[in-house]
Amino acid sequence: MEQELKNDSDIVVGSDGAALYSTGATGSLKNTGKLTIGKNSVGMFMKDGTALTNTGEIVSTAEGAKGLVINRTTAGTYTNTGKIKLTGTSSVGIHAEGAAHNINSGADVEVGNTTGTSQSVAIHLKDGGEVNVLANTSVKAGNGSIGIYGSTVSTTVDNNAKVEVGDGAVAIYAKSGNVNLNAGSKMKIGETLGTNKEAVGVYYVGNAGTINNNLTSFDIGKGSIGIADAGTGATTINNNSATVALKGDSIYTYTSNTSSNVIGNTAITSTGNGNYGYYVAGNLSNYGTMDLSSGNGNVGIYSAYGAGTGNGVARNYANIKVGKTNLENELYSIGMAAGYTNNNRPSENKVGHIVNMAGSIITVGNENSIGMYASGAGSTAENYGTIHVTAKKKV
Questions:
Q1: What sign for the dihedral angle of Cα 89, 90, 91, 94?
Q2: Helix, strand or coil, per DSSP, at residue 176
Q3: Residue 393: predicted pLDDT
Q4: pTM to 2 decimals?
Q5: Are the C-beta atoms of residues 364 and 388 closer than 8 Å to each other?
Q6: How much is the mean pLDDT over the chain?
Q7: What does 310-355 look like in DSSP terms, one character per residue?
Q8: Do 392 and 367 touch, CB atoms closer than 8 A?
Q9: Alpha carbon distance 101, 104 (integer Å)
Q10: What is the spatial distance between Cα 146 and Cα 119, in angstroms, rounded to a whole number?
Q11: What are the C-alpha distances in Å from 280 to residues 54, 77, 221, 347?
Q12: Percentage above 70 pLDDT, the chain
């Protein structure tokens, strides 16, 4: 016999408690009211039950709060249509474990800044499954926090849905599977919080997945990274966003995975210094124009990986406009670059391979800027297109 616990009232819970709790194979939970929860407390906790439904509201300003917790060994699909807002550090909006559960996020889910060692996460799938951010909803996470995290089969952001995170935060941290940012979806990430504390739109550490970037709007904060592949295997990144503007010290797409393959169809512009359109260790085919004329030290395409670790080739099929160079601060603007040489620390040396394809034009209009550049033994630069130089001092 099914045991259902329903709530349509306001409930306030202090520390280390649960507003609604169900255990047992026949249990179920339903909430239409407002749940206000304290430190280390849970709004709705279901252990081995049949159903969990939230159309109400779950809120907290306390540390370690959790909105919905699903712990069930049989995989299921759960749709949340109630608003969840937990602004205390180390909070989790929706947490699922025990099996590969599917979570449909049909309402706004928000967690705040992370100030301790345990990160706040809006949606967390511990043991696989799928996350779908449905149309007209949002997932938000504050500084140093994570929007969506887990070992997922797939993560999908639907049309007119938005994932937004603060400084030093990660919008989607995918340990496996595919990421689908559908046409009409939006993403906004904050600025870097320092070295190795960049905000990242999609951080992929899985094996041979696919990232489909069809975002209508992709707002990348200063010093941050749009998409990063630090995984393994033949991961594919399809960048089909129409445009992206880099605000300074930012990278649109970064890969350390030498087996990765990036297809770029995005028009890239710069509004600051030290930006990279693509910084890749694997293969790249770029078809999107780049106008990096605003700012100093911007690089369109950079191919670099350890000698003997890969054989990636970065190919450009589009027009690239190179910006200004600041010699005093060694900020060189380059259309395409390959490899890296450090004579003092040769263990850091890298090789690369770049090709400017027929029909593509790299324009160098500023003094001391560079069309194509290769550094170190083993690095290769091939030009079958046009390098148009108008500056007096150029390479």
A1: positive
A2: coil
A3: 58
A4: 0.96
A5: yes
A6: 95
A7: ----EEE-S-EEE-B-BTTTTB--EEEEE-B--SS-GGG-BB-EEE
A8: yes
A9: 10
A10: 7
A11: 43, 37, 20, 19
A12: 98
176-227 per-position pLDDT tens digit = 999 999 999 999 999 999 999 999 999 999 999 999 999 999 999 999 999 9
**Token duo for residue 9:** 């009232």
Tokens standing for 297? Answer: 């030290």
Looking at residue 133, its pLDDT comes to 97
Question: In 3D, which of 374, 354, 352, 370 has the Cα closest to residue 362?
Answer: 370
Q: Distance between CA 15 and CA 18 in Å, rounded?
A: 9
**What single-letter amino acid sits at 385?**
G
Look at residue 103 and give its three-state secondary structure: strand
Local confidence band at 352 (pLDDT 50, 70, 90 cut-offs): very high
Measured CA to CA, the distance from residue 296 to residue 324 in angstroms comes to 5
C-alpha dihedral sign at 342, 343, 349, 355: positive
How many residues are there in the chain?
Answer: 395
Q: Is 173 helix (H, G, I), strand (E, B) or coil?
A: strand
At residue 348, what are phi and psi to the nearest 5 degrees? -90, -5
How confident is the model over 24-42, as pLDDT tens digits? Answer: 999 999 999 999 999 999 9
Of 75, 57, 60, nearest in space to 16 by CA: 60
**Residue corresponding to tokens 């205390």:** 88
From 250, 263, 349, 347, select the one nearest 297 (Cα to Cα).
Answer: 250
Give CA–CA dist 161/55, Å, rounded: 19
Q: How far is CA 192 from CA 168, 195, 220, 250, in A?
A: 5, 8, 10, 9
- Answer yes or no: is pLDDT of 1 > 50: no
pLDDT of residue 390: 86
**Confidence band of 330 (pLDDT split at 50, 70, 90):** confident
Q: Residue for token digits 């909006």?
A: 93
Burial 309-335 (b: 16+ CB within 10 A, else e): ebebbbbbbbbbbbbbbeeeeebbbbb
Interatomic CA distance for residues 258 and 80, integer angstroms: 39
Measured over the CA atoms of residue 346, residue 349, residue 351 and residue 354, the dihedral's sign is: negative
83-105: per-residue pLDDT in tens?
A: 999 999 999 999 999 999 999 99
Q: CA dist 114 to 72, 83, 188, 268, Å? A: 28, 20, 18, 31
Instruction: Look up tokens 């904060």; give the residue.
Output: 221
- In the chain, the amino acid numbered 17 is G
Q: Is 234 exposed, middle or buried (0-12, 13-18, 19+ CB in 10 A)?
A: middle
